[in-house]
Amino acid sequence: MSDKKNDNQSGEEVGESCKSIGPRCPICDAKGTDIKAVTPQHTLKAVHRREIDPNGQYHFCENPDCNVVYFDCIGGSIFTTDKLINRVTIKDEHPDTPLCYCFKVLKKDALKELATSGSTDVIAMIKEGMKKHGCQCEKLNPRGSCCLKDIEGWLASKGIDPKNQSKPASGCGSSSGENRQGGCGC
After folding, report:
1. CB burial string 88-119: b at 16+ within 10 A, e below
2. DSSP for 65-110?
3. pLDDT tens, 75-85?
């Protein structure tokens, strides 16, 4: 069952907090990014999916140190990391955490490549995969959008300049993060 929280740290009701200052996590008060209900419908464990309101206004908590992944300002639902199928890239440092959910690239894959060669082609590999096969970021990535920004941030945190990694000739070519042939618009 989702956690219901009627007030955040400031004492405001969750829905009121979202109206007055924009979507803020009711637990840590970090900014929330709007996502469509289709994202939690596909990323939550099956037992929690029935708790999703298809008309809910869901947000992704941007704080890496907060256990909240999704919150709904209107319904007050909160879904934490333990309720998801996969670990969340920005919230979990475990080597088995996905970097890319569409192509099943794990942090340990990039770490192994970094250890052997001093660099990684993970970004180029993902972009090539998106051009050939498309992506399903909106359904597979808990953030509900392209993973490449998170991967670049993770690489930077490891002291690797993501801009100096080898890249394909062009990006993936889409713009929405939806299930698209040709990619999601990174």
Report:
1. bbbbbeeeebbbbbbbebbbebbeeebeeeee
2. T-SEEEEETTT-EEEEGGGBSS--GGG---TTSEEETTTTEEHHHH
3. 889 999 999 99
pLDDT at 47: 97
Q: Which fold has domain 3-83?
A: N-terminal domain of TfIIb (2.20.25)
Calpha distance 130→135 (Å, rounded): 6
- Whole-model pTM over 0.85: no
Pairing relation of β-strands 58-61 and 32-35? antiparallel
What are the φ and ψ backbone dihedral angles of 115, each rounded to 5 degrees?
A: -65, -35
Token look-up 């639902």 returns 77
Interval 168-180 mean pLDDT: 41
CA–CA dist 56, 17 (Å, integer) = 16
pLDDT tens for residues 30-78? 999 999 999 999 999 999 999 999 888 999 999 999 999 999 988 889 9
Domain boundaries, the chain: 3-83, 89-164
CATH for 89-164 is: 1.10.10
pLDDT of residue 82: 98
Structural contact between residues 72 and 18, judged by C-beta atoms closer than 8 angstroms: no
